[in-house]
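Morning run. Coffee first, then this:
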Amino acid sequence: MAASPARAAAFEILLRVELEDSYATELLHSARVSRLSPPDHSLATELVMGVLRWRPVLDRSLAQASSKQLERLDREVLTALRLGIYQLQFLSKIPARAAIYESVELAKTARKRSAAPFVNAVLRKIGNTSSDLEKIAAAGDSRALAELSAHPEWLVSRWVDRYGIERARQICRRDQTVPETAIQLDDEATAVELSQAGVQLEPGLLLATAHRVRSGDVTKTGAYREGRVSIQDEASQLVAAVLGHGSAILDCCAAPGSKTSFIARRNPRALVIASELHAHRARLLQRRIRRPNVRIVAADARHLPFDGTFDRILADVPCSGTGTLARNPEIKWRLTAADLTDLQARQIAILKAALMQLGPGGRLVYSTCSLEREENETVVEQMVRELAGVAIVDVRGELERLVREGELAWPNPGSLVAGPYLQTLPGVHPCDGFFAAVVERRS
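And here it is:
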């Protein structure tokens, strides 16, 4: 008998994540997986994200129960075992016999029938005690914190050095939990429509204009398909709000388009140009963003093809994504310290090109979803030193504006500030980790 649809989908996705460097979130929203029933899709999501979040914890349990070294196991067998261990140790509602049987069937389906007895034997040795999130609070140093929270030690060590042990604990704990879904809407009539479609909403915690999904699937609604609803973390929405208002606005790294949509809605009389490197993603933006004041352009952000100048520019650059590990846990197992240097070179090139498009008196917001200094302060401060006529503007002024306009709902705006910059931290704030700097051209 074949494995259940949910486990078969989770197995396939985990293999693609590992062998093809695919992203789990994208695969979980692919057309094929979306055809699963709601309960099966929910279980597949739980299994994929759970295995990716807790992979080293699962592997330690496997190493203790297995007579074979992990690196000698075929990827299909290892993936089937990880799925089984996750169900045994983290999903108490799933009977142990079901978790074991399904993993054995997955190995058989993957043409590893000879490994089926091994999978069965190993999983029968695994205890069903789960890792406790509360143990993270007891970690006294970066090594213990990394082990208890299933993070790479080199990354946790950086956070402890920069933010202190308590904040590092909060970041790691949040990374190991399922994040809430935040959305932006065209108008409040859309909120009523979502309610009628079975989607229950709660007010945003950072922004008064944001909503959080309490229950229901937004992606199954007509409002989402028509582009009147965008899934967007509240920190991402806050970055777009900090950009403010203008008449000629450039979003130079626009995909997937949520910030572009946010900016265009807030600036209905402005021309908003959304630039995206890859032509196929630019076409996707064209289908997704249907606002009359938005123009989509396929272009390399390091070599922008515009002759005119803009009074507002958003440079939300490609980055490591270390502020989004709750949503993208596979990043933990791909990223290396050397990657930060490679990303920084690209980020500097994009920021320099974008600043060249900024008119006198215009403002640019440079942002990342990274917690790393190399991608944030270092990039901005290097560009300000190298280019004449530009200066960093304290973000406090923009946050005060959002408070006056009734948009910023967070009760402690000062906690969002690090020096002159915006910095949200997962677990410290109810959102992903984002950095933003406001740069002004003064001559």
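Residues 234-441 form a domain with the Rossmann fold fold (CATH 3.40.50.150). Good start to the day.
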